[in-house]
Amino acid sequence: MEKQILDWLAAEDYLGMDVDELATALGFDTTDKFKELVKCLVKLEDEKAIVRGIGDRYFLPDRTGIIIGTVQLNPRGFGFIRVGDDLDDVYVGEKNLHGALNNDKVKIKIDGKQRGSSLEGEVIEIIERGQKQVVGLVKQIHGKFYVSVDDNKFGSLVLLSGNRKGAMEGHKVVAKITSFEQPIMGEVVQILGHRNDPGVDILSVVARYDLATEFNEEVMAELEHIPDVVAAKDKEGRVDLRDELIVTIDGDDAKDLDDAISLKRLKNGNYQLGVHIADVSHYVKEGSQIDKEAVSRGTSVYLVDRVIPMLPHKLSNGICSLNPHVDRLTISCIMEINSAGDVVDHQILPTMIHSTERMTYNNVNKILDGDKATTKRYEDIHKLFFQMEKLAIILRSKRNKKGAIDFDVDEAKVIVDKKGKPTDVVLRTRGISERIIEEFMLVANETVAEHFFWLQVPFIYRVHEHPKKKKLLNFATIASVLGYKIKGSLDHVYPRELSSLIESAKGKPEHSVISTLLLRCMQKARYDAQCLGHYGLADEYYTHFTSPIRRYPDLLVHRLIRTYVFDQKLDGQTIQHFSEVVPQLAESSSNCEIDAVNCERDVMDMKMAEYMQSRIGQEYDGIVSSVTAFGLFVELPNTIDGLVHISTLKDDYYHYDAQYLQLVGERTGNTYRMSDRVRIKVINASKLDGQIDFEIIDSKKKKRKPKEEPVHRRNGDKKRTSASRNLFSRSKRPNNKGRSRRGSK
């Protein structure tokens, strides 16, 4: 209802309505709906998302010159107010922030001035502080103790006026802000350790996102009642699949095995694919302490040297993990799939399995590649994997025909030693077996989502909406510079068009650039109680069913399956209950996922920068991945990227050509564009900021013909233009690693 209200108020022809007029216009003509509308209006007004004007008529704040947004500070002091996907960010100078800090929710007034391509505004009210606690390093200055905040956008030291808990200079701490008036004051709530202690650097990032690393006493007490082996009574009423050939296929070091596979050829030539998922919902009951903790975490977080699990190890690595040669409880989606890749029949069943073998991606890949030793080791089951490969090819072919987008962006893995020091950065490799499991998980997720859509009961979906026209336009502009065009109107681009564009770039130097830029212009996938489809997968129905050990939405899906299908509880009270809780859980899960992805990315950036600190002065070949008015970003083959600041281009004075997204030398005519190959030298790396600086020592491309009358000017004689702020750069130095390194659909 909130979305309906906001969409209605955002319409171009909307001139203002009071509550009665809104109720009529939106069709809320029952007493209950009217009451709900009033509650929504009050809530939106309290949140400053809408304002009430003359005659009690409701408007969006931007219709009155006042806008609500979130502060995104630049380390240099100024900021941009992010006001949503459909509106441009608003520039606010340092003197007009009036005490607003990074991530604060603020009300700003637009003054009509322009700053580059942005409107300029002034903060008139701080609605909500975005950071109530900070993480940083304790320093002693003139006898007083301060916290130097890790986040360089915070912009201020925090004076420790309260309890320090014994923290001394050199300690990394979590501090609660007690006063936002200058000087900002706080008190220590947790000492993470000395900054030189192994692992404290990652703990600092984890603390910045307020991610819990330990389970509370109530959770641990509940675990005492959970068995270590499957009890006989828990096997009752389940389909017994323990005699079936069922295997798990995971990474070498995986311990939480939540999916297993079976596959047969039927007499009619079709395939019978069984996707068997750990029945976590049998052990984690709604409203239990374990469930509440899982809701608050939302997802497991995978960092370079550790995992912060959503569930305690007794569940994630024990009774719920589909370990080989032991009985386990599962929920199975068993599908009959024809030669065209269509699911012609399916069943969703409570089952129990006895996994035949714990396979790894590496070993399955070796079998499929013909490795004799590995094939002999698994001689009793090796034929199964060739059958899996055939079905996966069929499913992939169908997906390609639908137009699913395969971004195929390289992902890196940081190798660290026992002390957490990075020793190498390598590309993650995806072999045939990884793609097999991906296809099987996708078809199971689709099948379950469609099943419950047609049941017309409250359910949680994984949705990925159509990209915004403005972002597509920005992408189309950049792609055209590289020689790629989107066919048809940008008002409604089908996934197939973008998929074909990506395919046409494969094998070419610009492929990674095109893939990454397209990925950034997509909307973020999220969870929702409405089935809105998945644009990137070209799917009308999609959910997350296959990873209940590490994702709460999957656990919720299992709970809904048990309630509606196994227990046949479809009464009004049950439907009403899930109608209320599912939207809330979808939103909280989406927010937890964002924090997890950002934490994972920040740790990766930090470790990559730490890795490059010992390589300052070394040279590498790379490709230009982004061009801005203040310089260009160069990505190395292992995905590490760094900024080549315009001030380091000393061979000429460079102008930023916004139309063709290039830097052009005024005297030499030399140009730098995306996908250009260059050789760079590492000149700086900041572990704290997760940033790396390069300088170009050789450009492997042709120069443009110089002008006849060059204007000789030393680099830096002329004031640089402000940073160009487009889809891919928002500040002086944007975070250029916006993609998730987990690659989750």
Task: Walk me through this protein's architecture.
By secondary structure, the protein is an alpha+beta fold. The protein has six domains: 2-61, Arc Repressor Mutant, subunit A; 65-128, OB fold (Dihydrolipoamide Acetyltransferase, E2P), CATH 2.40.50; 133-197, OB fold (Dihydrolipoamide Acetyltransferase, E2P); 217-392 and 405-463 and 534-603, no CATH class; 469-522, no CATH class; 615-745, Nucleic acid-binding proteins (OB fold (Dihydrolipoamide Acetyltransferase, E2P)). 29% of the residues lie in helices and 26% in strands. Strands 5-4-3-6-7 form a five-stranded antiparallel sheet, with no helix packed on it. Strands 8-9-10-12-11 form a five-stranded mixed beta barrel. Helix 12 packs antiparallel against helix 14 (511-521). The longest helix is centred in the last third of the chain and has 42 residues, at 572-613. The relative contact order is 0.08.
What is the element layout, followed by pairings?
Elements: H1 2-10, H2 19-26, H3 31-46, E1 51-52, E2 58-59, E3 66-73, E4 79-82, E5 90-92, E6 105-115, E7 118-128, E8 133-141, E9 144-149, E10 158-160, E11 171-179, E12 185-194, H4 200-208, H5 217-223, E13 239-240, E14 247-250, E15 259-265, E16 271-278, H6 289-297, E17 301-302, E18 307-308, H7 313-319, E19 327-337, E20 343-354, E21 357-360, H8 361-368, H9 372-377, H10 382-402, E22 412-416, E23 422-427, H11 432-455, E24 461-463, H12 469-481, H13 495-505, H14 511-521, E25 526-528, H15 552-566, H16 572-613, E26 619-628, E27 631-635, E28 641-645, E29 654-657, E30 662-665, E31 671-673, E32 677-686, E33 691-699
Parallel strand pairs: 10-12, 13-20, 14-21, 28-33
Antiparallel strand pairs: 1-2, 3-4, 3-6, 4-5, 6-7, 8-9, 8-11, 9-10, 11-12, 15-16, 16-19, 17-18, 19-20, 22-23, 24-25, 26-27, 26-32, 27-28, 29-30, 30-31, 32-33
Helix pairs in contact: 10-11, 12-14
